[in-house]
C-alpha cells in the first residue's frame, strides 16, 4: 500500500520543529518504524515533521557525572562513542544487536523509545539505568522518568504536540574495586525478524562483596517493558546462584505474558525466567 498524502516539513531548527507540531502531525527521525506505519495506513498524519538532521538533537555530552544523549542520535553514533561505551557498556552491548547495519545507521535512540514497541531492546535498558526523558513542546519542557514513560504497546506519556528531545542518564556507579555496577542483557530472538521474543536487562552494584542495588527489567514479555520488583531481594546478599534462580522465577510469576504466533504465553514466561537468570548472573559477574 502507499501512504495517504501529507505535507512534509523539514525542520531547520528545534524551534521550527516545535512550531510545526500539532495534533495531526507525526515526527519522522530515521523513519525505520514510521514508514511501515504510513504504508499500512496505521498512521495517517496531515503533516510529517522531519527532525532527522537536527544538530540540536544529536550528540552525546557529559553532564553532572552522567550523560545527555540527543534524541536524534543514531544507534551507529551511540556505538561510535567510546565514552558512552566506557560509562554504560550495557548500552553498547544492546545497541550492537538492534536490527542490522542499515537500521543502526538511520534509526535513532529517540525514535525507538518514542515508538514504544513492546519488544524493543532499548526500553528495559533505560529502565534499569533509571534514565530521564526530556519532552518539549511549544509550551515548554518537562522531564519524565523512563520508569513512567511507557504506558502500553506503542503508547507513551508523550502528548501529540511533544517531542522527545533528550535522554539523560544518571552517573554510573563507581569503578571496579571501589564498588561498581555491572550490567547485562540476555534475550531470545524471533528467528526471522531478530526482534526479542523476550529480553531481560540487569544492573547490579556490588560493594565489599555484597549487592547494594539490583535492577531487572523485561521487554517482549508483557505489553510494556517493566521493572521486576523481585530483584530487590538480591540486595544485601552475595547473589548466590540459587537466589538468582529464585528471583528470576519470582520476576515472571503472575505476569500476563504476551501470546502470539511467535510464542505462547507459557513459553514466553519460561524464556523470561531463563533470560532473567542469565542477565542477573552475568551482571553480577561484571560488578564490583
Ligand atoms: C529491519 C528492522 C529490524 C529491527 N530490529 C530491531 C531490533 O532487533 N531491536 C529493536 O529494538 N528494534 C529493532 N528495530 C526497530 C528500530 O529500532 C526502530 O525502527 C528505530 O529505532 C526507530 O527509530 P527511527 O529514528 O527510525 O524512528 P521513526 O521511524 O522515524 O519514528 C518512530 C516513531 O517515533 C516517533 N518519533 C521519532 N522520533 C521522535 C522524537 N524525537 N520525539 C517524538 N516522537 C518521535 C515517530 O513519530 C514515530 O511514531 C528494527 C527495525 C527494522 C526496520
List keywords for this structure.
globular, Enolase-like, domain 1, binds flavin-adenine dinucleotide, 288 residues, alpha+beta, Uridine Diphospho-n-acetylenolpyruvylglucosamine Reductase, domain 2, Uridine Diphospho-n-acetylenolpyruvylglucosamine Reductase, domain 3, four-stranded antiparallel sheet, five-stranded antiparallel sheet
Question: Main sheet: which strands, in order across?
Answer: 4-5-10-6-7
Structural class, please? Answer: alpha+beta
Provide the CATH architecture of the largest domain: 2-Layer Sandwich
Assembly form of the protein: single chain
Main sheet attributes: strand count, strand direction, barrel closure:
5 strands, antiparallel
Share of β-strand residues: 25-35%
Average per-residue pLDDT, rounded, comes to 94
* Topology-level CATH name of the largest domain: Uridine Diphospho-n-acetylenolpyruvylglucosamine Reductase, domain 3
* Domain count: 3
Number of strands: 14
- Estimated radius of gyration: 19 Å
State the helix count: 10
Please give the share of residues in helix.
25-40%
Short summary:
With 288 residues, the protein is an alpha+beta fold. It contains ten helices and 14 strands. The protein has helices at 14-20, 34-39, 75-80, 82-87, 89-95, 101-106, 109-115, 122-128, 241-252, 265-286; strands spanning 7-10, 25-28, 47-50, 60-63, 66-70, 132-137, 140-145, 150-152, 155-156, 163-169, 180-189, 196-207, 210-219, 226-227.
